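Morning, I've got a small favour to ask if you have a moment. I've dropped the whole record in just underneath, so have a look.
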Amino acid sequence: MAREENKETVGPAARMAAAVAKRMRLKKGLTQEQLGAQMGYSGAAISAMERLLHAVSDEMLVHLEVALGGGTGIFEEMRELVRLEKLPEQFRGYAPIEQKALALWLYANHVVHGLFQTEAYARALIAGGHPEPTPERVEELVVGRMARKALFNRKQVCEIELILDESVLRRVIGDKEVMREQLEYLAECARRRNVNLQVLPLDAGLGGEYAGDRGDLNIIETPAHDRVTYLEIQRESLLITDRAKVSAHMQQYAKIRAQALDPRRSLGLIEELAGVQR
């Protein structure tokens, strides 16, 4: 149930969306019940949104565009802003950089990288977090994570390279069916022309030089052809722009790549773990 104290958690973009929706509703001479009926919501839900008792949802913005937007695209444009402010605080500074990237070099050694997660995998992972999020918060975060996938089909192609530690492929998140679906999706991603997916095998450290021992790594090439590094651990994040440090991260990434299986063998391993018959 929406509460008055929720007003304090509603961000500026959601507040603006609520104000614009109310103004356009009144301009059209619609009651909250009438607008709700057009959108498939109750009048109480529209009231709660306008009174900021809860932040407007991504789905509601889609319906508001149809009911009130009149072809202006105003609520569609607000969707990105509202999604952004619903992301975890430590991720908000990086999210726009990721979406505008010309190229990404990614290494993940705990769980599947967020860009490559299925909805079921992401939901299981987020719902199992600590402190335990509310169902509403889980849904907000899942929607935000899935929205990042727009990068795969962007008109200006982003070249994406992902190296996954083999342990990530073997660590079951959710249940076996969720994990099988996730592995199949990774195999699908690996076949994209703009994606290079490799696996760092479990025996990579046999020679005593395990290049992936320092954790996840995200390196981004910006539209200005600069390179930056993004690191995140224990709900803390760091965006590094110092060229010398980013260069060192690129060298570390190159060592990880050198120890990884080639793309064909990596795809074979993913398909094998997914139970795909070749």
